[in-house]
């Protein structure tokens, strides 16, 4: 039993969390744990002031994320999965400075390297990859889609999931990304839409896996749409551990808190909250990333 008198007592996973040694680092993870959190998906934090310009630079950057995960596991006894990849904004910056050809090659090399980390069981997925969340102009947007197509082709070959950073055009974005997945036969289920909205109906998600950024209003949206969901969804804060934006996007305690709010909301609607939350925090993460080792 993971739901006792309406209280969720099971594991709690935040699917998109960054850490930075120069920021709150371990204290942020402690906040998550004290609020009831048990599992983090630590996503590589891009450093836009120092984007790697060769593959050795990427290797060093990824190794740093892996080392942080190890320290959090060792010191806090949290379960930490790692996701590694080149951020789409890095690609935009480098396309401007290095030209498309060089930027594309470096970007795809960085994805291949992330896949190698997955094959060595140092990571469980590629991310965050995707396309610019701002309107970068027609040419860049079209080229970003071409690069994403290749990225997902590599993930398909290697059979690893991808956390996608996308523009916020709702259903239209999801429809376009689903098409890109289909073109390279990457399963839509393995396309984890990071920073997704609370509408988890299949009509809206087009079968992508939503990782919902769980602001307060998202709980109602999830509760209202969950009966039309297929394949499950995840919860995240997109915590950035950025000293200039403390608590952004949402603070480290948010997923534990919203998990309880979601349990209460689902129970109020007569929906089986235990099954739903087991899917969010246990079954779906295992299906996507494999059992935690
Ligand atoms: Zn992120």
Structure, explained:
- The protein is of the alpha/beta class.
- It has one domain (9-289): Metal-dependent hydrolases (TIM Barrel).
- Helices cover 48% and strands 15% of the residues.
- It contains ten helices and ten strands.
- It has helices at 26-34, 55-76, 88-98, 100-119, 138-158, 170-183, 202-205, 218-225, 254-268, 273-289, and strands at residues 3-4, 7-8, 13-17, 39-43, 79-84, 125-130, 162-165, 191-196, 209-213, 233-236.
- Strands 3-4-5-6-7-8-9-10 form an eight-stranded parallel sheet. It has a two-stranded antiparallel sheet with strand order 1-2.
- Strand 6 (125-130), helix 5 and strand 7 (162-165) form a beta-alpha-beta unit.
- Helix 3 runs antiparallel to helix 4.
- The radius of gyration is 18 Å and the shape is globular.
- The model has no long low-confidence stretch (mean pLDDT 97).
- The structure holds zinc ion.
- Residues 16, 18, 43, 128, 238 line the site of zinc ion.
């Amino acid at each position: 039993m993971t739901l006792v008198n309406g209280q969720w007592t099971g594991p709690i996973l935040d699917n998109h969390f960054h850490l930075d040694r120069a920021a709150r680092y371990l204290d942020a993870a402690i906040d998550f744990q004290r609020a009831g959190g048990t599992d983090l998906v630590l996503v590589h934090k891009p450093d836009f002031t120092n984007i790697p310009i060769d593959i050795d630079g990427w290797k060093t950057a990824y190794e740093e994320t892996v080392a942080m995960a190890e320290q959090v596991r060792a010191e806090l006894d949290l379960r930490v999965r790692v996701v590694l990849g080149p951020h789409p904004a890095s690609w935009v910056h480098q396309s401007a400075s290095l030209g498309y050809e060089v930027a594309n090659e470096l970007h795809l090399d960085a994805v291949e390297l992330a896949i190698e980390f997955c094959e060595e069981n140092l990571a469980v997925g590629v991310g965050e990859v995707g396309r610019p969340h701002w309107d970068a102009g027609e040419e860049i947007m079209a080229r970003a889609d071409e690069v994403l197509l290749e990225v997902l082709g590599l993930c398909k070959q290697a059979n690893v999931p991808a956390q996608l950073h996308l523009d916020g055009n709702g259903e239209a974005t999801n429809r376009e990304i689903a098409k890109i997945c289909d073109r390279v036969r990457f399963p839509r289920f393995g396309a984890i839409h990071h920073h997704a909205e609370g509408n988890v109906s299949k009509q809206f998600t087009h079968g992508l896996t939503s990782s919902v950024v769980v602001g307060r209003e998202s709980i109602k949206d999830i509760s209202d749409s969950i009966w039309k969901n297929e394949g499950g969804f995840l919860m995240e804060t997109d915590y950035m551990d950025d000293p200039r934006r403390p608590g952004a996007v949402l603070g480290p305690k948010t997923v534990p808190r919203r998990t309880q709010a979601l349990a209460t909301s689902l129970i109020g609607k007569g929906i089986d909250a235990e099954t739903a939350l087991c899917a969010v925090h246990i079954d779906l993460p295992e299906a996507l990333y494999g059992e935690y080792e």
